[in-house]
From TrEMBL:
Species this protein is from: Oriolus oriolus (Eurasian golden oriole)
Record PROSITE patterns: PIWI
Signal peptide residue numbers: none
InterPro entries assigned: Piwi, RNaseH-like_sf
Record GO terms (molecular function): nucleic acid binding
Top-level taxon of the source organism: Eukaryota
Ranges of residues in domain Piwi: 178-247
PANTHER family according to UniProt: EUKARYOTIC TRANSLATION INITIATION FACTOR 2C
Gene3D superfamilies cross-referenced by the UniProt entry: 3.40.50.2300
Residue runs in coiled coils: none
Protein's UniProt name: PIWL2 protein
One Pfam family matching this protein: Piwi
Length: 247
């Protein structure tokens, strides 16, 4: 038993934010502020300390003095790195992302997906249909080939049902490149069981997709599927992009 003195402890971390969208939004706003916003908040704090007599006296008692501005130094700005794909190269945009470019051009090395399994519970069959359609429509522009999967529709979404179906499907197939599973939202237990089976007990590259990410307008689903295809290509040994590394 560990006994903690309440006056010397404080709670860290946050509860599950997914069930509280408002709190999640506020936390994300705090995390992704710009450097200018961080600077303004720091200088604002310094001014508040300076203008609060109690705080100033406490610092004086400690023999401390805070400047009203943070320390400034000259930073070194690195040049932008050129991103190389198979047939073209480019400099990233200001946000340093290149998702748009890499989904319209062929990666450096692409692995065709010919022998793969798609497993999902029956109640999510409409999402599986949308997923397959989006994969077929997106793979061409990315230089990938996606064949018809062996489909296994589950009667329920229990862990045992997923595990038994995966073991049976892998045992009946000669060579499986990839296992792709759709799981219900909020089922981390199913995710862990699938990954344990595919990484430890019966090694095979696997991709698990949360049903929530496939819900919404077609543009959102297409964006999710493009990212999934890039992940799958890496897991199968493909190479997405490179940078110039001088001698």
């Amino acid at each position: 038993m560990v006994l903690l003195v309440p006056e010397l402890t404080f709670l860290t971390g946050l509860s599950d934010l997914r069930s509280n969208s408002r709190m999640l939004k506020e936390v994300m706003w705090e995390m992704i502020q710009s450097p200018q916003q961080h600077y303004q908040r720091l200088t604002g704090l310094l001014r508040r300390i300076r203008d609060t007599p109690d705080a100033s006296r406490e610092l004086e008692r400690w023999g401390l003095c805070l400047d009203t501005d943070i320390y400034r130094t000259q930073g070194h700005i690195l040049p932008g790195e050129r991103i190389n794909l198979r047939h073209c190269s480019f400099l990233p945009a200001e946000d340093l992302g290149w998702h748009r470019e890499v989904t319209k051009e062929a990666p450096i090395a692409v692995i065709s997906i010919n022998s793969w399994l798609l497993i999902y519970p029956k109640r999510l069959q409409h999402l599986a249909k949308d997923l397959l359609a989006a994969m077929r429509s997106s793979c061409g522009s990315m230089g990938m080939q996606v064949g018809q999967p062996a489909v296994q529709e589950l009667r329920d979404d229990r862990i045992e049902t997923y595990v038994r179906s995966i073991q049976s499907s892998l045992g009946s197939q000669d060579k499986v490149q990839l296992l792709l599973c759709i799981i219900p939202s909020g089922r981390d237990d199913v995710y862990r069981a699938i990954k344990k089976l595919c990484c430890v007990q019966t090694p095979v590259p696997s991709q698990v997709i949360n049903a929530q990410s496939l819900m919404g307008h077609p543009g959102k689903i297409r964006s999710v599927v493009q990212k999934v295809l890039l992940q799958i290509n890496c897991k199968l040994g493909g190479q997405l992009w490179g940078v110039d590394i001088p001698l």
